């Protein structure tokens, strides 16, 4: 038996029509991790669109400050987006590599945000840290560019970026051989932090 629902959604003056087919008597297939992530992002997008439509936001916690002003294209969308990010967004930190070039960074100089970010993500206390790579929306390569410059380019013999590029390419080669996540997006959902002047 098949039941069909048609849903009309007016989204920013663009009409979308969704047809949902429900089949009784069939087991629902188990979603892949990528499909679960896409479903989660879809729920976040729906909440953001709803905040825009209602000119309001929904949150499970007391919000003391709601951003307003001409700097925001839509303050409701921005605010709801932040709420959804804090509720859902997860980052997997790769564990491959060794100090000092990987998993560490400067903490108390002008490039300190790099080391602070790595330390925060690897501390286990961040609400954004994924417990398993299958639940991650983004993947962090814990490479310290500041330490690479400090350890590989001292004494300074050349300004060539070849050593830096080779090290990053080697690290990407290791994680792409070991895990399927780089390959499924060709690295589009992977990032590293580098601060420079």
Describe it.
Pfam families: Exostosin_GT47. Its main location: Golgi. Residues 86-197 form the Exostosin GT47 domain. The chain is α/β, with parallel strands linked by helices and 197 residues long. The chain has 2 domains: 2-88, no CATH class; 91-191, no CATH class. The protein is 39% helix and 14% strand. The protein is built from 6 helices and 5 strands. It has helices at residues 33-54, 75-88, 112-122, 145-152, 162-178, 181-185; strands at 2-11, 14-23, 91-93, 138-140, 190-191. It has a 3-stranded parallel sheet with strand order 3-4-5, with no helix packed on it. Strands 1-2 form a two-stranded antiparallel sheet. Helix 3 links the parallel strand 3 and strand 4 (138-140). Helix 1 packs antiparallel against helix 2 (75-88). It is globular. The termini are far apart.
Tell me the number of strands: 5
- Helix amount, in percent? 25-40%
Strand content: 5-15%
Tell me about the largest β-sheet. Answer: 3 strands, parallel
Shape: globular
Keywords: Coiled coil, Glycosyltransferase, Golgi apparatus, Signal-anchor, Transferase, Transmembrane
Pfam family, one: Exostosin_GT47
Membrane topology: Single-pass type II membrane protein
Family: Belongs to the glycosyltransferase 47 family.
């Amino acid at each position: 038996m098949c039941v069909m629902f048609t849903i009309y959604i007016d989204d920013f003056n663009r009409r979308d029509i969704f047809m949902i087919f429900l089949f009784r008597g069939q087991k629902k297939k188990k979603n892949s991790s990528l499909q679960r992530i896409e479903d989660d992002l879809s729920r976040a997008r729906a909440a953001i669109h709803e905040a825009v439509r209602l000119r309001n936001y929904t949150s499970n916690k007391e919000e003391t400050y709601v951003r307003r002003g001409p700097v925001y294209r839509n303050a409701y969308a921005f605010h709801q987006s932040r709420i959804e990010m804090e509720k859902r967004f997860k980052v997997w930190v790769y564990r491959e590599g060794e100090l000092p070039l990987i998993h560490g960074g400067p903490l108390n100089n002008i490039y300190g945000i790099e080391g602070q970010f790595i330390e925060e993500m690897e501390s286990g206390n961040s609400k954004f840290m994924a417990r398993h790579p299958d639940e991650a929306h983004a993947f962090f390569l814990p490479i310290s560019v500041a330490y690479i410059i400090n350890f590989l380019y001292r004494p300074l013999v050349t300004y060539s970026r070849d050593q830096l590029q080779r090290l990053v390419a080697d690290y990407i080669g290791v994680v792409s051989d070991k895990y399927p996540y780089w390959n499924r997006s060709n690295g589009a959902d992977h990032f590293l932090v580098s601060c420079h002047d």
